[in-house]
């Protein structure tokens, strides 16, 4: 009898002490968490891809709520969820949101096997970063796609793959969420997040080679040689040539495609345009 | 006799010193010489010539552009053709100065006589004067790393030099340039050693030579006794057991004076040693005594399939193609071209790459020799751990790099890796260990740099 009593009293006492400690701790260490954060987190896609620039969706939700308190959530955008999700979030938070135009990853290299001949064989680790550190790679172009798929590994949406025939990374536009993971993984900064453009139509320079014209031509037949013809042709001043490389500013480009026709090496590519006259055989390939 | 060597790890690859007994030939002048502006560790040099300028042998063409940098001198006389880009040993196009060669006219300031100058005959050579002449002449470490020599000679105030160790190990297979240099210019090298010791304000010196070069050990020991016997300087030739990578700075310090250099950022001088390559000692002699800037070097051109492999005294800027042609041309079939030896050398994709300050060898491996075998799963045999001269765990570091666990990789001291390749050489499963580790090392070093910059 005594035995049982002692046990009951002892356990009861321990329970009481623990309860008091827990109560004190819960009061003392209480942290205010905005209930909106949890609500916003629920709305976000939960991919935790980091495409917004924060460490996962929780971080983004935190930033959004803080933004509301500061008066603006401009510049915060979930590339995965797109306007839908951001609209819902804005409604919840009672904010107007200026949606950025949707973007898509663009692989700026068109140096397929037939255009860019192999001059050496690389036998080391099949990894773009390792190959990049060893030199120009298997072709003479020190800027182009290495085709080992660091971007494929980085993509969490199965949206980028190496085309076995061309040896170049290709983006699946429907799956791409423009989170930018591939662009970060590419050791050569070939991948750019570009505006999708109206109806997905866009014009861009599919090359990042900064060598002089003769040198880059020798390495790859479809490289940008920095001749500047496109710059002269462009009626909107959207094109600049710097370091022997042309760049089309997506904000200024009106997709007139004059530069595409002017480019002597077909380095400028227009995608998703209807093809009235099939003049450019490259177009299908470039639907990257 | 107990022959010294370093304490942990090491391998013994097949030597293949094909050109051991081939006397050095003077390489023909190239038609066009190419001078990369980045031939050393540190900032690239800044050109001081323009297109169309006339230069002589020994004319300054690019000046040092920072503290860790080195000037570059023309090795030929002629006209500056252009300042452009060309593929260098990194495999990428980098800024270069290209000079069209016309005749062979030297700057008058260079003493071209064979007369052996001694330190005693030049009392004006204070330690500061030696360091400044070495700096002026653009002398960098000739073993391959190309670290500016003058910086090594002026250690940070926290460290005190106690001895100079001359690296004449040449543990890398195939290469014989340092051996031939010792056999042909022992006296000059010893004057160079004396200059280095004087500049570093020490009186003790060691010359580490592996036992596969008995002729060099015998010759250097005799010359040392003749030169330094009875003087204030004590220079000892230390025969070392053949073991790769004994030529690594830290391994050599351990082998010769039995001290271990702590993990980076510690350098050999933190344990009292200044390590200089034997080629550097020779370059220092020529720079200080003959007023000859660094523009030519000893280079081995070798390969089992090469018709006449040989050792050359070659002007920098000479395309490798010229040297390979002088050895009978590129062998037929697929070959692997390396700047350096088979262990540490850098694979190249062009024969037009010029010889630079650090090119100790041009090695051509045949397809069969160079081809990698299919990697198999790791069987945890720990051979890589056993051979790692830095006491690291290569299998682990490789895996950590593969899965991008940079934090753990840093904790496991990935930055201590000297990239000697012993792990990959010894791996029975042919795993690409060093490929992965190198990748991890550069990433972790980048992370550390960003953190320190904050």
Describe the protein.
The complex is a heterodimer of chains A (288) and B (454). Chain A is an alpha+beta fold. Chain A has 11 helices and 8 strands. Chain A has a two-stranded antiparallel ribbon with strand order 1-4. In chain A, strands 2-3 form a two-stranded antiparallel ribbon. In chain A, helix 2 packs across helix 3 and helix 2 (35-43) runs antiparallel to helix 4 (82-93). With 454 residues, chain B is of the alpha/beta class. Helix content of chain B is 29%, strand content 19%. Chain B has helices spanning 127-136, 149-153, 177-200, 214-228, 249-257, 278-289, 320-326, 367-370, 383-387, 394-402, 406-411, 422-426, 433-453, and strands at 25-26, 32-36, 46-47, 54-55, 60-63, 72-73, 78-87, 93-101, 163-167, 204-210, 234-240, 273-277, 296-302, 310-315, 335-339, 346-348, 361-366. In chain B, strand 5 (60-63) and strand 6 form a beta hairpin. Chain A binds chain B through residues 119-121, 123-125, 127, 129-130, 133-136, 140, 142, 211-212, 215, and chain B through 84-85, 87, 90-93, 334, 346-349, 370-372, 432, 435-436, 438-439, 442.
| Helix content range of chain B | 25-40%
Structurally, the number of domains of chain B stands at 2
> What proportion strand of chain A?
5-15%
First and last CA, distance of chain B: 53 Å
Largest sheet of chain A: 2 strands, antiparallel
Which class do the helix and strand fractions of chain B yield? Answer: alpha/beta
Helix content of chain A: 25-40%
Low-confidence stretches of chain B: none
The count of β-strands of chain B is 17
The sequence of SSEs of chain B as H and E is EEEEEEEEHHEHEHEHEHEEHEEEHHHHHH
CATH C-level name of the largest domain in chain A: Alpha Beta
